[in-house]
Amino acid sequence: MVMRLVARDLAFGYRHHRVGEGFDLAVTTGEVLCLLGPNGCGKTTLFKTLLGLLPRHAGHIELAGQELAQLQRAQIARCLAYVPQAHESVFAYSVQDMVVMGRSAHRGLFAGPTASDYARALAALEELGIAALAARDYTRLSGGQRQLVLIARALAQDTPLIVMDEPTASLDFGNQLLVLDQVERLARRGLGIVLSTHNPDHALRCATQVLLMKNGRLLASGAPESALTEQTLKHVYDVDVRVERLADGQRVCVARNAGTST
Amino acid sequence: MDSGSRARLNTPSALGILGALVLLAAALAAMVGPYPVTPAQLLAALRGQPIDPVIDIVLFNVRLPRIAAALLVGGALAAAGTVYQGLFRNPLVSPDILGVSTGAGLGAALGIFLSLPVLAIQGLAFATGLGTVALVYLIASAVRGHEPTLVLVLSGVVLGALAGACVSLLKILADPYDQLPAITFWLLGSLASVRVDDVFGAAPAVVIGLIPLVLLRWRMNLMALGDEEAAALGAAPGRLRLLFVAAATLMTAGVVAIAGVVGWVGLVMPHIARLLVGPDFQRLLPTAMLMGAGYLLLVDTLARTLTETETPLGILTAFVGAPVFLWLLASGRRAW
Hints:
The complex is a heterodimer. Chain A is α/β, with parallel strands linked by helices. Helix content of chain A is 32%, strand content 27%. Chain A has a single domain (4-88, 159-260), classed as P-loop containing nucleotide triphosphate hydrolases (Rossmann fold, 3-Layer(aba) Sandwich). In chain A, α4 (115-127) crosses α5 (143-156). By secondary structure, chain B is an all-alpha fold. Chain B is built from 14 helices and no strands.
């Protein structure tokens, strides 16, 4: 199913505090939109606005051709899933119970999870290779495992589009690559993914589109090759970097040594 | 256990065992007391066979209504505690968190101070309990721009303290020989004077409060994830919270009106239930209710048999509850 999430001239923020404005973006199923920007530039606020968790200040957000503000919460949750940053849970829900909560938008208000919901949850865990964790307590998992469980919950939610807030933050090197592999695989499977990251290499690796933002403004957007350049990265992060092409064509960012600046 | 999952009873067996224990406790409570009843007499009485009229009166007019009241009050307080702990994502929360008990205490103290009849005192306690929480909710809704649950808890603490001050004022003004002991006794909770009518009076509030909890038992889990995640998963957290607060408050106010302020049950029982069956509200609610019902029945049976005069429930639940709670804290569990 083809679905689009579109924002036009979007301004967003909290009640008495505008965080960002002038945002245009669109993501379609099968694409990976990667958002880069320094700490505190408004990435999470933008995501919460796209999910309808915060009211927009101005502009438009359209999901599946309809104005987001006109949609019910359950309708949004059937189109767009949210993967928050891996967090602590107060109560020790089992991984299975945690993931099956992703099914709630597909069930009536008074219903409980059915056998097919548990099967869907288990399938999501299997897809991410963590079915062995099903009976474990969420509170006793490592940060990387928790992040994968939250992704599994979004998969169980069965939405064409997924928003992931820094899914690789707080993960070790191996788990970061694992999560990126999953993002690429999900996009190939036809899901549309919006994610934020602090690592330009992640964007170069898996993104079909990149948005660079700073201080609530969009600085550059487009294909990774055109949007992620030495100039734009310097502008966003205030550091000198080189963008190099490896032998296999993969592009990477490396910090420029102080002595070799040109 | 280092596999990361804790040994938990499966739900049907946990509920079966707990149900049997509660029945056993009820039978025991029916037999013990200043006028002992043998098992044979109890069975005969329950079958409707002719028995000693004194036993008939002891069982049907005194003990069984009191047993029913203890089960009702304990179950309702445990259910309300379970709801509030999930809602506020905090295992240290009790049903009093939004001021329902203190509010009800104020109404009861006022009723006693004005020498109102018992029924009016109960009605006033029920109304002020509900009214306090309604006021807390209104104030919290008016304050915007903060984490909604935090504002709710803070408003509850503030109004609760205010109601507590008013109760203290009434205690000073009350007649020290007649009204003051009555107020004090009420504030510590007791089922000593409970009658069949009281049970039937409080039961509707408990049942009506329980209906949304049972219907929305799976949705309650989403609330324990926090508002944003609950909303992203398709729920309407604001409306759900209002409904859950209303339901839990109705249940608490209903039972506090007939039993007075019985502390600790709503705080400790959800904890122990969570240790047994885990935090999933679908399993947690019935388990916590059975445990609360059984626990309060045992405590009330102790309250009326331990000493010559009745011991207030609040004192016994604290004596039993505080060590259990400290043990839970000391056992160093990282998560509930």
